[in-house]
């Protein structure tokens, strides 16, 4: 379970009562990379292998499954031990800059490195009807049971014509990494897919999706100015405020068919 039962004091119209309530569970997950403590992520305690792999992928530390020599989970201690086949220069550069984070606010991306990284412009890729994107978002929202019970999670979903993977986490970056990690482990071609999320469209999320090679990113929430700028420059179709039958396209609308 990713939620905990608590007795709380509820105030309604100046009247108080003791009631049972659910809160989202949050744990620290520490990743050790090639024997060195690398980063601690605050996350919802499910799909930790996917989170680890998705994080390493979206940080540019791995490109294929063959890059991972060994991955051991210690769920009692909330540790993950990862051995990479070849020492990645990025990993050595990032060592010592680890942060305890949920992937919200400050995020888990190391900006000083990303500033110098070249992200390839996306190819044209597949186009989708507006109705397909809005229908997918409506379906995904209906799957978000943890949110309905706790109000404390974000979701991410990878979809094509139908929903492929759906994950929830306390951090929006973590939810995206879990979906990316699952697709990576399953060897799914994501170059013609859509990533849907409940979180705001920050530059960090845009960079994660660009590095994964997904051509369309859609959210119920708003984008930032830097997210729009990067998306326009790198060929990512960026959609915000996907609600009901409407959406706003902020970058590269050529993949959206009316």
TrEMBL record:
SUPFAM superfamilies: Cytidine deaminase-like. Belongs to the FdhD family. PANTHER family: FORMATE DEHYDROGENASE (PTHR30592), SULFUR CARRIER PROTEIN FDHD (PTHR30592:SF1). Mo-bis(molybdopterin guanine dinucleotide) binds at residues 241-246. GO terms for cellular component: cytoplasm. NCBIfam families: fdhD_narQ. Required for formate dehydrogenase (FDH) activity. Acts as a sulfur carrier protein that transfers sulfur from IscS to the molybdenum cofactor prior to its insertion into FDH. The keyword Repressor does not apply. Keywords: Cytoplasm, Molybdenum cofactor biosynthesis. GO terms for biological process: Mo-molybdopterin cofactor biosynthetic process. The lineage of its organism: Bacteria, Bacillati, Bacillota, Clostridia, Eubacteriales. It comes from the Bacteria. InterPro entries: Cytidine_deaminase-like, FdhD. It is found in: Cytoplasm. GO terms for molecular function: sulfur carrier activity; sulfurtransferase activity. The active site is at residue 104. This is Sulfur carrier protein FdhD.
């Amino acid at each position: 379970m990713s939620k905990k039962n608590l007795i709380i004091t509820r105030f309604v119209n100046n009247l108080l009562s003791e009631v049972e309530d659910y809160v989202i569970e949050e744990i620290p997950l520490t990743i050790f990379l090639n024997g060195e403590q690398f980063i601690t992520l605050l996350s919802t305690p499910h799909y930790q292998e996917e989170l680890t792999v998705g994080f390493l992928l979206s940080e540019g530390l791995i490109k294929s499954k063959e890059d991972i020599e060994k991955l051991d989970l210690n769920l009692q201690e909330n540790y993950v031990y990862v051995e990479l086949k070849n020492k990645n220069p990025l990993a050595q550069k990032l060592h010592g800059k680890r942060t305890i984070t949920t992937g919200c606010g400050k995020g888990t991306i190391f900006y000083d490195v990303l500033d110098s990284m070249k992200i390839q412009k996306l190819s044209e890729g597949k186009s989708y009807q507006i109705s397909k994107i809005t229908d997918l978002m409506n379906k995904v929202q209906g799957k978000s049971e943890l949110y309905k019970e706790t109000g404390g999670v974000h979701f991410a979903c990878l979809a094509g014509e139908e929903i492929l993977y759906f994950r929830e986490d306390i951090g929006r970056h973590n939810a995206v990494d879990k979906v990316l990690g699952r697709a990576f482990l399953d060897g799914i071609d994501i170059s013609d897919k859509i990533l849907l999320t409940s979180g705001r469209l920050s530059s960090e999320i845009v960079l994660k999706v660009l590095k994964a090679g997904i051509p369309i990113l859609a959210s119920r929430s708003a984008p930032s100015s830097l997210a729009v700028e990067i998306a326009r420059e790198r060929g990512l179709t960026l959609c915000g405020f996907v609600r009901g039958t409407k959406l706003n396209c902020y970058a590269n609308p050529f993949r959206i068919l009316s």
